Amino acid sequence: MNIILLGYPGAGKGTQAEILVKEYDFEHISTGDMIRKEIALATPLGKAVEKGISQGNLVRDEQIIKLVEQVLKRGRQSHIFDGFPRTIPQAESLRISLSVLRQKIDYVLFLELSKEEVIKRLTSRRVCSKCGAIFNIYDKSFTGSCSCGGNLITRSDDTLESAKHRLEVFEKQTRPLVDYYESSIGVKRLDASKEAREVHNEILRAIGLKK
Ligand code: AMP
């Protein structure tokens, strides 16, 4: 089964993908994580995109598509696409790559959240520098540390200025995907303002894994 998670940055796509991967046999394809790894390893790609990412701009389609194709080549049957596709050319490329593998997108889920809530979530998000776990400083369970012992950091693109810009980028470049998928597969909209576990249960119901 292949699922695309759409939604503003900070809507909880990464958190929901993590929960699903823990419970079901999905390959988590987070292009944001892949790009951050390239930056951390200071690869030529990482060096080329670092500045643009911290400003909230998208990476070029060809560069992102190449990364995703490397993962698809592993031949897994179930993927969760988190943060990919973000443009129509990426969506077209994904459709073609999956059809070559005799696969298709089964569900497109749109995690809906207001812009105000997104800005609040992004600027209060912390990420473990070691295992990538995602935290929010306003969560009751937030302790300021990660169980793996890694340091919690603020992503360079979670500043107020970059967060606002990312929302504009979403409206311009990613929002058209909603119509694109609405007219083919259909888009299931979920209320992402709820607590993560509740959103997870809604996702399970939307993809037929729970009644
Ligand atoms: P994310 O972790 O999904 O919020 O992604 C962080 C940043 O990585 C984005 O703001 C973009 O700069 C870049 N990025 C991630 N996925 C894509 C994509 N599919 N297309 C272009 N840029 C991307």
Feature tags:
single chain, 211 residues, alpha/beta, three-stranded antiparallel sheet, 8 strands, globular, binds adenosine monophosphate
Protein described:
It is a single chain. α4 (61-72) runs parallel beside α5 (88-100). The protein has a domain at 2-113 and 174-206: 3-Layer(aba) Sandwich (Rossmann fold), CATH 3.40.50. The chain is globular, with a radius of gyration of 16 Å. It has helices at residues 13-23, 31-40, 44-54, 61-72, 88-100, 115-123, 160-174, 176-182, 196-206, and strands at 2-7, 27-30, 79-82, 107-112, 125-128, 134-136, 152-153, 188-191. A hairpin with a 5-residue loop joins β5 and β6 (134-136). It has a five-stranded parallel β-sheet with strand order 2-3-1-4-8. A three-stranded antiparallel β-sheet has the order 6-5-7. With 211 residues, the protein is an alpha/beta fold. It is built from nine helices and eight strands.
Say what the CATH topology of the domain at 2-113 and 174-206 is.
Rossmann fold
Shape: globular
State the total count of DSSP E strands.
8
Q: Which architecture name of the domain at 2-113 and 174-206 does CATH use? A: 3-Layer(aba) Sandwich
Give the CATH class of the domain at 2-113 and 174-206.
Alpha Beta
Strand order of the largest sheet: 2-3-1-4-8
